[in-house]
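Quarterly update, task 2.4: ribulose-5-phosphate-bound model.
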Amino acid sequence: MKQLCAKEALKYINDGMCVGLGGGSTVGYLAEYLAQEEKKITVVTPSDDTAELCKNLGLMVLSLEMTDHIDIAFDGCDELDKHLNALKANGAIHTKEKIIAAMAEKYVLLIDESKYYETLPLEDSVTLEVIPQSRNYVQAQVEKLGGKAVMRKNSAKAGFVISDNGNYIMDTYFTELAAFAGKPEVLHQKLKQLTGVVETALFIDVVAFALCVCGDEVKVIKK
Ligand code: 5RP
Protein backbone atom coordinates (compact mmCIF):
# COMPACT_ATOMS: atom_id res chain seq x y z
CA MET A 1 0.00 0.00 0.00
CA LYS A 2 2.79 2.41 0.92
CA GLN A 3 4.63 1.60 -2.30
CA LEU A 4 1.49 2.34 -4.33
CA CYS A 5 1.14 5.68 -2.58
CA ALA A 6 4.81 6.55 -3.15
CA LYS A 7 4.51 5.62 -6.86
CA GLU A 8 1.58 8.03 -7.17
CA ALA A 9 3.55 10.80 -5.44
CA LEU A 10 6.34 10.35 -7.97
CA LYS A 11 4.01 11.69 -10.68
CA TYR A 12 4.06 15.15 -9.05
CA ILE A 13 7.84 15.48 -9.16
CA ASN A 14 9.71 16.91 -12.15
CA ASP A 15 13.39 17.45 -12.92
CA GLY A 16 14.77 20.66 -11.46
CA MET A 17 12.49 20.65 -8.42
CA CYS A 18 13.54 21.12 -4.83
CA VAL A 19 11.57 18.39 -3.03
CA GLY A 20 10.84 18.15 0.69
CA LEU A 21 10.83 14.61 2.05
CA GLY A 22 9.68 14.03 5.63
CA GLY A 23 10.13 10.90 7.71
CA GLY A 24 8.65 7.42 7.69
CA SER A 25 8.44 4.39 5.47
CA THR A 26 6.21 5.77 2.69
CA VAL A 27 8.57 8.67 2.14
CA GLY A 28 11.41 6.12 2.16
CA TYR A 29 9.83 4.31 -0.80
CA LEU A 30 9.42 7.63 -2.59
CA ALA A 31 13.14 8.34 -2.14
CA GLU A 32 13.93 4.92 -3.62
CA TYR A 33 11.74 5.56 -6.68
CA LEU A 34 13.25 9.03 -7.17
CA ALA A 35 16.71 7.44 -7.26
CA GLN A 36 15.60 4.60 -9.56
CA GLU A 37 14.12 7.07 -12.05
CA GLU A 38 17.29 9.19 -11.81
CA LYS A 39 15.25 12.34 -11.22
CA LYS A 40 17.41 15.47 -11.29
CA ILE A 41 16.12 16.99 -8.09
CA THR A 42 17.43 18.29 -4.79
CA VAL A 43 16.02 17.08 -1.49
CA VAL A 44 15.53 18.83 1.85
CA THR A 45 14.45 16.84 4.85
CA PRO A 46 13.82 17.29 8.57
CA SER A 47 14.77 13.68 9.22
CA ASP A 48 18.32 12.37 9.77
CA ASP A 49 17.17 8.90 8.68
CA THR A 50 15.69 10.21 5.41
CA ALA A 51 18.82 12.31 4.80
CA GLU A 52 21.02 9.25 5.22
CA LEU A 53 18.79 7.13 2.99
CA CYS A 54 18.77 9.80 0.26
CA LYS A 55 22.54 10.22 0.38
CA ASN A 56 23.02 6.45 0.14
CA LEU A 57 20.69 6.42 -2.87
CA GLY A 58 22.78 9.13 -4.56
CA LEU A 59 20.19 11.93 -4.19
CA MET A 60 21.49 15.44 -3.53
CA VAL A 61 20.47 16.61 -0.05
CA LEU A 62 20.49 20.32 0.82
CA SER A 63 20.51 21.69 4.35
CA LEU A 64 17.20 23.19 5.41
CA GLU A 65 19.00 26.27 6.69
CA MET A 66 20.37 27.00 3.21
CA THR A 67 16.97 26.55 1.54
CA ASP A 68 14.50 29.34 0.83
CA HIS A 69 12.02 27.63 -1.46
CA ILE A 70 10.62 24.14 -1.84
CA ASP A 71 8.53 23.22 -4.87
CA ILE A 72 6.68 20.35 -3.28
CA ALA A 73 7.05 18.42 -0.03
CA PHE A 74 5.80 14.94 0.89
CA ASP A 75 5.39 13.58 4.37
CA GLY A 76 3.57 10.91 6.32
CA CYS A 77 1.30 11.51 9.30
CA ASP A 78 -0.46 9.53 12.00
CA GLU A 79 -4.00 10.94 11.72
CA LEU A 80 -5.71 13.09 9.08
CA ASP A 81 -9.23 14.55 9.13
CA LYS A 82 -11.55 15.56 6.29
CA HIS A 83 -10.53 19.23 6.71
CA LEU A 84 -6.88 18.18 6.12
CA ASN A 85 -5.84 18.78 9.72
CA ALA A 86 -3.15 16.29 10.65
CA LEU A 87 -1.45 14.87 13.70
CA LYS A 88 2.19 13.81 13.50
CA ALA A 89 2.84 12.42 16.93
CA ASN A 90 5.80 10.19 17.18
CA GLY A 91 8.68 11.56 15.20
CA ALA A 92 9.55 14.50 17.52
CA ILE A 93 10.82 16.42 14.50
CA HIS A 94 7.57 18.29 13.92
CA THR A 95 9.08 21.78 14.27
CA LYS A 96 11.40 21.19 11.32
CA GLU A 97 8.61 19.40 9.45
CA LYS A 98 6.49 22.52 9.86
CA ILE A 99 9.28 24.76 8.54
CA ILE A 100 9.36 22.57 5.43
CA ALA A 101 5.56 22.62 5.16
CA ALA A 102 5.56 26.43 5.40
CA MET A 103 8.30 26.81 2.78
CA ALA A 104 6.77 24.38 0.30
CA GLU A 105 4.45 25.53 -2.46
CA LYS A 106 2.54 22.32 -1.82
CA TYR A 107 2.75 20.15 1.29
CA VAL A 108 1.31 16.72 0.55
CA LEU A 109 0.60 13.89 2.98
CA LEU A 110 0.92 10.23 2.02
CA ILE A 111 -1.38 7.94 3.98
CA ASP A 112 -3.49 4.83 3.87
CA GLU A 113 -7.17 4.83 4.74
CA SER A 114 -6.55 3.59 8.29
CA LYS A 115 -5.19 7.06 9.08
CA TYR A 116 -8.15 9.00 7.64
CA TYR A 117 -10.95 10.14 9.98
CA GLU A 118 -13.97 12.39 9.99
CA THR A 119 -12.57 14.04 13.15
CA LEU A 120 -9.06 13.53 14.53
CA PRO A 121 -9.40 10.88 17.26
CA LEU A 122 -6.15 11.99 18.95
CA GLU A 123 -5.32 8.37 19.72
CA ASP A 124 -1.70 9.41 19.46
CA SER A 125 -0.23 12.14 21.61
CA VAL A 126 -0.32 15.78 20.65
CA THR A 127 3.43 16.06 20.98
CA LEU A 128 4.95 19.37 22.04
CA GLU A 129 8.50 20.60 21.64
CA VAL A 130 9.17 22.71 24.73
CA ILE A 131 12.01 24.90 25.96
CA PRO A 132 13.53 22.89 28.85
CA GLN A 133 13.10 25.63 31.47
CA SER A 134 9.36 25.85 30.75
CA ARG A 135 8.60 22.19 31.32
CA ASN A 136 6.89 22.40 34.74
CA TYR A 137 4.88 25.44 33.67
CA VAL A 138 3.75 23.85 30.39
CA GLN A 139 2.93 20.56 32.12
CA ALA A 140 0.71 22.36 34.66
CA GLN A 141 -1.03 24.41 31.95
CA VAL A 142 -1.72 21.29 29.85
CA GLU A 143 -3.39 19.76 32.90
CA LYS A 144 -5.49 22.92 33.36
CA LEU A 145 -6.64 22.48 29.76
CA GLY A 146 -7.82 18.96 30.67
CA GLY A 147 -4.90 17.05 29.19
CA LYS A 148 -2.27 14.71 30.54
CA ALA A 149 1.37 15.60 29.93
CA VAL A 150 4.18 13.05 29.90
CA MET A 151 7.81 13.92 29.32
CA ARG A 152 9.26 11.66 26.62
CA LYS A 153 12.06 9.60 28.12
CA ASN A 154 15.15 8.33 26.41
CA SER A 155 15.09 4.53 26.73
CA ALA A 156 18.78 4.05 25.93
CA LYS A 157 20.14 6.69 28.31
CA ALA A 158 18.66 7.93 31.56
CA GLY A 159 16.90 11.25 31.12
CA PHE A 160 14.58 12.99 28.71
CA VAL A 161 14.57 12.94 24.92
CA ILE A 162 16.27 16.04 23.56
CA SER A 163 15.06 17.29 20.19
CA ASP A 164 17.39 18.25 17.34
CA ASN A 165 16.86 21.84 18.49
CA GLY A 166 18.00 21.13 22.06
CA ASN A 167 14.50 21.10 23.57
CA TYR A 168 12.36 18.59 25.46
CA ILE A 169 9.62 16.51 23.88
CA MET A 170 6.37 16.38 25.86
CA ASP A 171 3.57 13.99 24.90
CA THR A 172 0.14 15.38 25.75
CA TYR A 173 -3.08 13.39 25.71
CA PHE A 174 -6.52 14.89 25.21
CA THR A 175 -9.51 12.60 24.99
CA GLU A 176 -12.07 15.40 24.79
CA LEU A 177 -11.67 17.35 21.56
CA ALA A 178 -15.26 18.33 22.34
CA ALA A 179 -13.86 20.65 25.01
CA PHE A 180 -12.25 22.60 22.14
CA ALA A 181 -15.43 22.95 20.09
CA GLY A 182 -14.44 19.73 18.35
CA LYS A 183 -11.77 21.73 16.53
CA PRO A 184 -8.12 20.70 16.53
CA GLU A 185 -7.16 24.26 15.53
CA VAL A 186 -8.53 25.52 18.87
CA LEU A 187 -6.47 22.97 20.80
CA HIS A 188 -3.41 23.81 18.68
CA GLN A 189 -3.77 27.55 19.41
CA LYS A 190 -4.24 27.02 23.15
CA LEU A 191 -1.13 24.87 23.34
CA LYS A 192 0.97 27.00 21.00
CA GLN A 193 0.31 30.15 23.02
CA LEU A 194 1.75 28.63 26.21
CA THR A 195 5.08 30.32 26.88
CA GLY A 196 7.86 27.82 26.23
CA VAL A 197 6.01 25.74 23.63
CA VAL A 198 7.98 25.86 20.39
CA GLU A 199 5.53 23.84 18.30
CA THR A 200 2.72 21.33 18.54
CA ALA A 201 2.40 18.24 16.36
CA LEU A 202 -0.99 19.37 15.04
CA PHE A 203 -0.69 20.52 11.43
CA ILE A 204 -3.47 23.01 10.73
CA ASP A 205 -4.12 24.68 7.37
CA VAL A 206 -0.83 23.63 5.79
CA VAL A 207 -1.77 20.51 3.85
CA ALA A 208 -2.49 21.12 0.14
CA PHE A 209 -3.85 17.63 -0.45
CA ALA A 210 -3.31 14.03 0.63
CA LEU A 211 -2.75 10.89 -1.39
CA CYS A 212 -4.64 8.12 0.36
CA VAL A 213 -4.40 4.45 -0.56
CA CYS A 214 -7.82 2.82 -0.42
CA GLY A 215 -7.64 -0.83 -1.44
CA ASP A 216 -5.78 -0.89 -4.74
CA GLU A 217 -6.40 2.72 -5.71
CA VAL A 218 -4.94 6.02 -4.59
CA LYS A 219 -7.43 8.79 -3.90
CA VAL A 220 -6.60 12.49 -3.84
CA ILE A 221 -8.12 14.08 -0.74
CA LYS A 222 -8.69 17.81 -1.07
CA LYS A 223 -10.69 20.30 0.99
C1 5RP B 1 5.62 10.66 12.70
C2 5RP B 1 4.98 10.82 11.37
C3 5RP B 1 5.48 9.99 10.24
O1 5RP B 1 5.63 10.81 9.13
C4 5RP B 1 4.50 8.89 9.95
O2 5RP B 1 4.27 8.12 11.12
C5 5RP B 1 5.06 8.03 8.84
O3 5RP B 1 4.17 6.99 8.56
P1 5RP B 1 4.52 5.83 7.53
O4 5RP B 1 5.75 5.11 8.07
O5 5RP B 1 3.28 4.97 7.59
O6 5RP B 1 4.76 6.43 6.19
O7 5RP B 1 4.08 11.58 11.18
O8 5RP B 1 4.91 11.38 13.65
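Highlight for this quarter: The helical segments are 2-10, 25-36, 48-56, 94-103, 135-144, 184-192.
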